[in-house]
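Exercise 7.
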Amino acid sequence: MSSFSTLRSYRLPDLHPLCPFKARFNPHHAAAAAASKEWVLSFNALKGKKLEFFKEGGSELLCAWAYPYAGLEQLRTACDFVNLLFTIDEISDEQNGQDALATGMSFLNTMKDDSFDDGSVLCRMTKDFKKRFFPYAGPATTRRFLKHSEDYVLGFAREAELREKNVVLDLASYDPLRRENSAVRYCFGLFGYLLNMDLPDEVFEHAVYMEMHLAAVDMVCWANDVYSYDMEQSMGHLTNNILTVLQRARGLDLQGAADAVGVHFKELADSFEANKARLPSFGQELDAIVAQHIMAMEAWVAGNLEWSFGTRRYFGKNHLKVRETLVVELSPPRVLDD
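Solution. The predicted structure, written as tokens, is:
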């Protein structure tokens, strides 16, 4: 599918001043990153350009920004989890819907069933992660994490199917799918483990808290989409991006769609803050837990903005220049190897 815009560059919305949360960086980054990188390399699952890209350490850097409060061991486990998702994403990114679902089911069955073993590298990686996560996650965290596992797998398989068929969803259908296939809700599912604070379902499912949760998830997803658009269009992957959805749904050009992301990001931030002010008390003990989970959501949103310009993932070697100018020059189509 060709782009809906003839523009060869676009200006990013400046999301940093629109974000009311403060970013922090985890001091355990170096040690956790080294251990996690060694862990991934031991499985020999990535090849070629994917391996070279992994070695740049983008996943571990993301975790250090997204989970600044985590202890060393917890951060290492978070890095392993995000690297596991990176491996799945790299495998499924070039698969059709049926094959992506098969990849996902190997991961999901391993996550849910201790006796499952299909002999795959993905299965071995998942089993090893489980040993360091589930024994230390509370019951509510565990239940939701397994549900997020299922939603993530179905989400990225659906994404692959839509990509194969060249289908662009409408806005009402896109947001719910993007929350899952992006793995942002899944990554939020680590909070209870990292904080050692199990958030009860009565809080997580409360209407006001859920609005906050979804607003934070959407802030990450919309930011990621506006930042990653050039990388994705250069690979011909245009269907799973909010800029494409907005161009189609609202008749916008590329710059208009990017501007709309900035407007909506501000709306989401305002909604989060308003709901934070009206969230009811759940009692002194629970309120302390809720406050930490809210902090964790805020840290993810703010940290994601920092990470997006601190890595070459989205903007290549020009990432620092793009942060300064906010101008993204669209790249020509590129040929992918393994």
